[in-house]
Design brief:
The structure holds 2 protein chains of 2 kinds. By secondary structure, chain A is an alpha+beta fold. Chain A is built from 10 helices and 12 strands. The radius of gyration of chain A is 18 Å and the shape is globular. The longest helix of chain B is centred in the last third of the chain and has 14 residues. Classes of the chains: A alpha+beta, B alpha+beta. Bound molecules: flavin-adenine dinucleotide and FE2/S2 (inorganic) cluster (2 copies). One FE2/S2 (inorganic) cluster (FES) binds next to loops of chain B.
Chain lengths: 261, 160
């Protein structure tokens, strides 16, 4: 790993200021960034640790009944503390392994937007809002393809606000070696419609399966998905599964999520 | 830069770079080589230690992030006279190790599990060990050792 300076600000304001240095990068739980730096795929000159910023940590509810999770809140803290949104707590409790969940943060996961990560599916299916140090971004505008988001240079995810659906479930088809999602589907049923977000499958990263959303909005049952099919074109194809295989698994996982919701 | 943390109850200070991993600090600065580095890619769990009471991978955290933290490693698990703790003794009694490379991480992970969940089911033990890889034992005896350490009855053969 190349060397760098490490800074530990205690406010968002100080972190934003520190990130103005050339080649400075935020450090969340480091569960993605540190392995990446070891491979020299990232070589920041300074890391600005967000872990010591108290205002970015914790779970609360806002006046609209949304569940608000600070950007530095760990996966383990969400698994234990998001009881108001059980599908989200369950998703957080399935990320990686216990040690990864004790360090990794929701802000880091959402900022990284790995095409096989779990949180992006929850954020998109919930129609959540990503709050940064400078603005609020709707989930539909936030994810812009694998490892790509609406975030600007030095912008920090300070909070994610989740509207809580009537029913929801996340079904993860785990890639057993990496423990990431080979395919993951998050289904969320709100009073005004159903949202379905798929991770792990597409070369474009997390996406909404609109045909399934329409079918489930008129009939929230696994049977409503029967006639639908998804094309394997544009799906990730690798040694773990072909594009067609992933497309098939998306439908299976969507059905299971509806049944579990 | 200088970093100071409490390791197994003792205040330890050392000179580190930004990139110094907690695993390197423990092994190289402090000579605590019980924390093993199996993969260095955050996959194997041989390096698991506790930081402020949480089990973490010491190879995936910087020493500088541990300023002021309480760190517990495998060296602090036995009594000062060398008497093994309950988990360590159970690993010996139930042959929960062969080469022993994964064992420090297994023991520290088991300690974290049993603190939060003193009487886990076999399935819960297996799930909690998801991030700990063992190339030798096939896991059955590790699972049995942890069940024994929890004071529960140990199945003759752990389920597949
Ligand atoms: C063995 C293993 C298994 C895993 N399994 C899964 C899994 O099943 N599902 C899953 O979803 N993930 C999985 N992960 C990834 C894990 O969830 C990471 O914690 C997460 O992707 C990144 O979060 P972090 O806080 O560790 O971020 P870091 O690694 O610190 O940072 C990641 C990136 O985000 C940036 N960043 C960090 N925080 C912020 C912020 N608040 N605002 C803006 N930018 C920020 C960093 O600069 C960096 O570019 C796994 C990781 C490991 C090592
Ligand atoms: S050495 Fe840390 S996880 Fe393998
Ligand atoms: S005993 Fe050899 S790796 Fe586990």
């Amino acid at each position: 790993m190349y060397n760098f300076d490490i800074e530990t600000p205690s406010t968002v304001k100080d972190a934003v200021a520190a990130l103005k240095q050339e080649d400075a990068q935020p450090l969340g739980g480091g569960q993605t960034l540190i392995p990446t730096m070891k491979q020299r795929l990232a070589m920041p000159s300074a890391l600005v640790s967000l872990k010591g910023i108290d205002e970015m940590r914790g779970i609360c509810e806002d006046d609209d009944g949304r569940l608000c999770i600070g950007g530095s809140t760990t996966h383990a803290e969400v698994a234990a503390g998001a009881g108001k949104y059980p599908a989200l707590a369950a998703l957080a409790g399935q990320i990686g392994d216990p040690a990864v969940r004790n360090r990794g943060t929701i802000g880091g996961s959402v900022a990284n937007n790995d095409p096989a990560a779990c949180y992006p599916a929850a954020v998109l299916a919930s129609g959540a809002t990503v709050t940064t140090d400078r603005r609020e971004i709707a989930a539909d505008d936030y994810f812009q393809g694998m490892f790509t988001t609406a975030l600007e240079e030095g912008e920090i995810v300070t909070e994610v606000k989740f509207p809580v659906p009537e029913k929801a479930a996340y079904m993860k088809f785990e890639q057993p070696a990496s423990r990431f999602a080979l395919v993951g589907v998050f289904v969320a049923k709100f009073a005004d419609g159903v949202r379905v977000a798929v991770t792990g499958a597409s070369e474009e990263g997390v996406f909404r399966w609109s045909e399934a959303e329409a079918a489930l909005t008129s009939d929230f049952s696994a049977g409503a998905l029967e006639g639908l099919s998804l094309s394997g074109d544009g799906m990730i194809s690798d040694l773990h599964g072909s594009g067609d295989y992933r497309a098939h698994i998306v439908k299976v996982m969507t059905k299971r999520a509806v049944e579990a919701a | 830069m200088k970093v100071t943390m409490t390791v197994n109850g003792q205040t330890r200070t050392g000179e580190v770079e930004g990139r110094t991993l907690l695993s390197s600090f423990l092994r190289e600065n402090l000579g605590l080589t019980g924390t093993h580095v199996g993969c260095d890619t955050s996959q194997c769990g041989a390096c698991v230690v506790h930081v402020d009471g949480k089990d973490v991978k010491a190879c995936t955290m910087f020493a500088a992030e541990c300023e002021g933290a309480e760190v517990a490693t495998i060296e602090g698990q036995s009594a000062p006279d060398g008497t093994l703790n309950k988990i360590q003794q159970a690993f010996q009694d139930y042959h929960g190790l062969q080469c022993g490379f994964c064992t420090p991480g297994m023991v520290m992970t088991a300690a974290a599990l049993l603190r939060d969940n003193p009487t886990p089911t076999e399935a819960e033990v297996r799930e909690y060990l998801e991030g700990n890889i063992c190339r030798c034992t096939g896991y059955h005896n590790i699972v049995r050792a942890i069940l024994a350490a929890s004071g529960q009855e140990v199945p003759a053969v752990a389920a597949e």
